[in-house]
Structure prediction request, 400 residues.
Amino acid sequence: MKRFFTTILFLFISASPLSALSDRGEISLTDYWIRPIPTSSNLFNKGLTKGKESNFISTPENCGICHKQQYEDWKFTRHSKSTGAGLTGQLMPLANPAEALSCYFCHAPSIEQNENVSAKNVSGSYSNNPSFNPKLRKTGVSCFVCHMREGKIYGPKISENLQTETPIDKNLLFGHKFIEKNFFEDARFCAACHQLEKGYKLNGKILVNTYNEWKESIYGKANIICQKCHMPGRKHLFKGIHDKETTLKGLSLELKKIEEAEKFKIKLIITNSGVGHYFPTYVTPLVVVKAYIIDEKGKIIDKTLKEAFIGRMVSLDLNRELYDTRIAPGKSFEFPYEADKQLLGQNKIVIEVKVYPDMFYNAFYRSLLKNGRYSDKNAILSALKSTEESPYLLWKQNLP
Prediction:
């Protein structure tokens, strides 16, 4: 695991240094995502027009005073939980700052979220971060991570259809100036964390390759960007495989029946018809397809159960890829099942698809608890409870 953390830490060293930001917002997307991010969230009010300045901190709650809907949407997302119990319960920032910073690279990328900083001109050396704010670290990937750089606010071009609770003024939106940038509606904006281009590989394949999966698909070629599905109408929802409705929208399920003299055959065809990348894209989820026969009392008849798995299963130490059965965009996964007709009668065939969004994490947390590898046992127990509650039944059919 240490090897994995260390690899990620140095992935984006090649990013160019962040130059001084002008009031015209002359900053490239590469510079925008330099890590750690110099957000300077305590300088928020320097952009106000009425001559008032204060030490107002741009926490999500404070941003939500005016951006109410955006805050209400965001606070239930995975982004808001990126520094939750599962992460903090295993890290030891003071004892192992390199490991912590490698995780913070995406989970808490603002400099104010990092307990330590790399010592200047001394490779592999770290010092305490004087601007560290523990309250901001808990907010994960929040408003200031995506919208603030050196105390200036950035955002997408104003849309004619944008619904707000206050009148729109291009230079004075929600009481502060902001700088418009086109890259907020560019898939590469998301790639900053959802593509580790030169990162850790297993079986010759990058561990986090979502942007490239999208880019090489029909969606990438048609420039149907990530934000279209994960931020519909610019809503800060960021829904993915943890959400049943979102998952169903991305798939097509077709059940074919084939009757023979002695056998009853069916085939479930699951097509990635609307997911802009592999389904699922990460090594963390697992989708289980299952068929079996039940008697009149609902009991599974012995030896009738058949299972198949959709996902990229890797070992907990990230050293081996066990299998990769994910569905590429436009491709299908076929699950055949057959039964002797003499078994049927009043019995029923049941076929179901169940999603385990946190399968890897669930096993990983159990391993941490078993081996005592944690900084906060209660935090890991809390994270484990969350992963145990995340599975859901995506689809089910009873065939008489």
About this structure: The first helix runs from residue 2 to 9. The first strand starts at residue 116 and ends at 118. The CA atoms of residues 194 and 399 lie 40 Å apart. Residues 1-23, 43-53, 164-174 have pLDDT under 50 and may be disordered.
